[in-house]
Design a protein that fits this description.
This is SusF/SusE family outer membrane protein. By secondary structure, the chain is mainly β. The chain is built from three helices and 45 strands.
Length: 593
């Protein structure tokens, strides 16, 4: 019995100890608080307070400290001298909303006043350490490590200001790099000083796109020794600055950014924004000389076409009359020494094909009088005087897509500088291009050039190389095709029926040029651009048209010379007349039989 009682007691004790419950003191347990971090400003920030913008905001922010159960923390900003300790702070300020928000917002004046209250003098830079402390009453945690900030108290200041122009754009601004009479105008909002006696002065700064304005490519002081909020800079000055900054290839666009820095006393501030500016220095080139249609009159110098495939290279299709003193190149329609700061190039003495800008000779040793393609590579100081021609190539032509078969059967005739015309039989449903040599264009300066339609345009624009084929607009037969580079920036072509009609009140059909009107019998083509018709005419007027139903291509003129869209031609008395038209030599005649 005694053993049974002992065993029962031991079992009870074992159960009692095995099921013992831990008791917690809910009153004295405390409240946990999680760690948190600063989000702004970053470590080692330098802040210069601006007396001209006292209401501007300075914001400190941090992530929220997570409470343990229910007690939300409050926050305060603490700062001390860099040589001091955050345990004895210089500044101790609750966060926004009486310490409840995880932000602290100052105006610049409030922050300046707080430092002033600690006997920090105006305009003095103070190096501080700072942190944010959070507490829920039971626990206090702090951001770590302490961060550095340098704050300069208000002294001089500059108000915010905006850039007006040139407006920010990535579309190139085309300038003449030699022009001293053309200007790029920079304007910006006027800024005001924090200290009235220290006037604001301005400096325009330029960097390569994405560059650092602390190390600009070049700068300008604004008008009125820096006091004006505007500056006009000549194209030549800008170009010279770009060249000095290493952008020596004038044919390549330069992507820049610009801003304005305002200074009042010791305070500096840039405009609120930065503007993009892309500059293309359009190097113009002209042909002049006794052998050219311009003779030696610089003002009449012939504009050359920029070579799409070779920046800095130019070409022109022109008739040269050898033996009249040769030719030279000009970058302005003015001889050197004038207001346009022009330069001229000729042959490097003793080395034909090499160009020189100083002590040069006229270019004369190219051959007999005739039509030439003259090219000038200004970058590499080379020139080329080659046969000048233009023709049609493609499966619409008898040459097929084989350039060596183009000339002379599919060739055109130069009727004026940079303009060819010709009559070519084209087959319906097929396509063609222009070409000026016996091979496809290889992109070189001296190589052949081929031209097709600009892919994004439907207005007859053509371009070198990568371009669409032209198509035959109607039935198989003769067509008048024109290559027109008289607008050197917009090469064009046209294709019209290979016919000519008379239309006007002197003719039986009158001014009705509709497709259904018989008009007169078509003029007869005899080759080489020559047309003839003999017919009865009334007293009145008439013109030549190429296609019934269209005025797009018509000739008028006076004194035996035709012109595109020229004046009506006059028949003084009724009778039988023989009318002749020469499209290549641009002449006409009217003979009464």
């Amino acid at each position: 019995m005694k053993n049974k009682i002992l065993y029962t007691l031991l079992a009870f004790v074992t159960i009692a100890f095995g099921c013992k419950k831990t008791e917690f003191d809910d009153v004295s347990k405390g409240e946990a608080l999680g760690a948190f971090t600063v989000t702004a400003p970053v470590n080692n920030t330098t802040l210069v307070l601006n007396s001209a913008t006292p209401a501007a905001k300075v914001i400190f922010s941090w992530s929220a400290a997570k409470p343990g159960v229910s007690t939300m923390p409050t926050y305060k900003f603490v700062a001390a001298l860099k040589t001091g300790s955050l345990d004895a702070p210089l500044l101790e300020i609750p966060s926004d909303n009486s310490g409840k928000n995880n932000t602290l917002t100052f105006t610049q004046k409030q922050l300046d006043d707080a430092l002033k209250a600690k006997s920090i003098a105006d305009g003095i830079k103070t190096d501080l350490i700072w942190a944010i402390k959070a507490t829920n009453g039971d626990m206090t945690v702090s951001t770590s490590p302490a961060l550095n900030i340098a704050i300069t108290r208000m002294g001089d200041g500059v108000s915010n200001f905006l850039l007006y122009g040139p407006v920010s754009s990535n579309t190139p601004v085309v300038i003449n790099p030699n022009a001293t009479t053309d200007f790029m105008n920079f304007k910006w909002q006027k800024s005001f000083p924090g200290v009235a006696t220290n006037l604001v002065k301005y400096q325009i700064k330029f960097v390569a796109k994405g560059g650092n304005f602390s190390t600009p490519l070049f700068t300008y002081t604004s008008n009125n020794t820096g006091l004006d909020s505007a500056l006009a800079i000549s194209y030549k000055d800008i170009s010279d600055k770009l060249t000095a900054a290493g952008y020596t290839d004038q044919a390549t666009p330069v992507a820049l950014q610009w801003t304005v820095e305002a200074t009042s006393g010791s305070f500096k501030k840039t405009a609120d924004y930065v503007n993009d500016l892309v500059i293309t220095r359009e190097v113009k080139m002209f042909l002049v000389g006794g052998d050219t249609p311009a003779s030696w009159t610089a003002e009449n110098a012939l504009p050359m076409i920029a070579d799409k495939n070779n920046p800095g290279t130019f070409y022109i299709y022109v008739k040269l009359n050898a033996g009249n003193g040769g030719l030279k190149f000009l970058n302005q329609q003015q001889w050197p020494g004038g207001s346009l700061n022009s330069s001229d190039w000729g042959m490097k003495p003793g080395t034909p094909g090499d160009a020189a800008v100083d002590n040069e000779a006229n270019i004369e040793n190219y051959g007999a009088s005739g039509v030439y393609r003259v090219s000038f590579d200004q970058k590499n100081l080379k020139y080329y005087v080659q046969d000048g021609r233009m023709g049609a190539v493609g499966d619409a032509t008898t040459a097929g897509w084989n350039p060596p078969n183009v000339f002379p059967s599919q060739g055109l005739t130069l009727i004026s500088t940079n303009k060819f015309i010709g009559f070519v039989n084209l087959s319906a449903g097929n396509s063609w291009k222009f070409i000026d040599g016996n091979a496809w264009g290889d992109g070189s300066v001296a190589g052949s050039k081929d031209f097709g339609k600009v892919k994004t345009k439907t207005d007859g624009s053509i371009t070198q190389g990568d371009a669409d084929n032209m198509t035959v607009p109607g039935a198989t037969g003769p067509y008048r095709i024109i290559w027109d580079g008289t607008d050197i920036k917009n090469l064009k072509y046209s294709i019209t029926d290979g016919t000519v009609f008379l239309v006007g009140d002197a003719t039986a059909g009158g001014w009705d040029n509709s497709a259904g009107n018989a008009l007169l019998p078509a003029m007869t083509y005899s080759g080489s651009g020559k047309w003839t018709v003999t017919t009865n005419l009334s007293a009145g007027q008439f013109k030549f048209i190429a296609t019934k139903g269209s005025w797009d291509y018509n000739y008028g003129g006076s004194a035996g010379v035709i012109a595109d869209g020229g004046d009506n031609l006059v028949i003084a008395a009724a009778g039988n007349y023989t009318i002749k038209l020469d499209e290549y030599n641009r002449t006409y005649s009217i003979t009464k039989n």
